[in-house]
Amino acid sequence: MDAINFGENVSCGYNSDFKEYGVISFDLNGSRQVVPNYAVPKMNTSTMSGICAANNSLVLSNKSYYAWTTSSGGKYTWTVNNGRIGWAASESLLAENTNQKGTNYKWEMCKAGNILSDLAQGKSVWGYLYSNEEVLSVCEKVGISPGFFSIDAGAGKHTYLLQESGKTINVDAKIKQLNDINWIEIGYKEGDTFFVYGKEYAIDSSGHINVSAEDEFTSTEIKYPSRSI
User: Fold this and answer.
1) Residue 14 has what pLDDT?
2) Beta strands across the sheet bearing 64-69
3) In angstroms, rounded to a whole number, what is the distance separating the alpha carbons of residues 214 and 103?
4) Please, how many CA atoms are within 13 Å of residue 145, restricted to the half-sphere of its CB?
5) Cα dihedral sign for 181, 184, 185, 188?
6) Cα dihedral angle (49, 54, 58, 63), rounded to 10 degrees?
7) How confident is the model at residue 156 (pLDDT cuts 50, 70, 90)?
8) Residue 155 CA to its chain's centroid (Å)
9) How confident is the model at residue 24 (pLDDT cuts 50, 70, 90)?
10) Cα 88 to Cα 123: distance, rounded to the nearest angstrom
11) In terms of pLDDT, which residue wins out, 214 or 58?
12) Is the pTM of this model over 0.90?
């Protein structure tokens, strides 16, 4: 099962050796493997942990299985694989074709998995892909409430700020932007103080401030010092 769910180039299709039976194909140790669909067992979700954050920190073990409960109450196997979170290939590839309307469980899980995967890989969750309401709903489903939160699922730890509206701010990206700017070159002076998420940072002699995502933040605002034009 691990070879299917965590392997490379996994696909579902037809193989003449199995005639009317569909197959799942995947790469293993340098060779292509084929397993008929009927031989792929369904995993027991009752033995799996759910996906749930603690204190707004979602930590998932890489190359592991979790149980996901849909809005209709159905339970399905999910995997975590290098920042990719979602329905296990051993089940999703064999599911019936569905559309994107209503509360369809397949589309519902696809959407939730994509949102969590983007966050787990340090990406920004853009509004044109998912609405703020959808992002907020998925975050709340896994125990993340508005405020600062982090997610670590096999692709490093990533920090975000979730607003009440469902808008997410990539804190790591914002911090990098603030640290990369030479503030002296754009009119500020050494010693000028920024308040970044409630913590003070002064411009050093090189023209930079040094913010870390590991710092303890007490505010959701960024305040800039005044400067002479």
Assistant:
1) 52
2) 64-69, 75-81, 84-87
3) 38
4) 2
5) positive
6) -30
7) very high
8) 9
9) confident
10) 22
11) 58
12) no
Contact indicator for 86, 113 with CB cutoff of 8 Å:
yes
Strand pairing category for 64-69 and 22-28 = unpaired
Instruction: Name the residue with tokens 């125990």.
Output: 143
Dihedral, 190, 195, 201, 203 alpha carbons, nearest 10: -20
Q: Are 34 and 17 in contact (CB under 8 A)?
A: yes
Average pLDDT over residues 114-138: 90
Helix, coil or strand: residue 20: coil
Question: Between the CA of residue 145 and those of 39, 86, 125, 181, what are the distances in Å?
Answer: 41, 21, 16, 31
Other C-beta atoms closer than 10 Å to the C-beta of 175 total 19
With CA atoms as reference, report the closest residue to 70 among 117, 37, 103: 103
Check if the beta carbon of residue 40 is closer than 8 Å to that of residue 23: no
DSSP state of 185: G
Instruction: Please work out, in degrees rounded to the nearest 5, the angle formed at the alpha carbon of residue 198 by the alpha carbons of 117 and 118.
Output: 5
The amino acid occupying position 152 is: D
Strands annotated E in 82-165:
84-87, 147-152, 157-162
pLDDT band at 95, cuts 50/70/90?
A: low
Instruction: State how far the Cα of 193 lies from the Cα of 181, in Å rounded to an integer.
Output: 14
N-term to C-term CA, the chain:
64
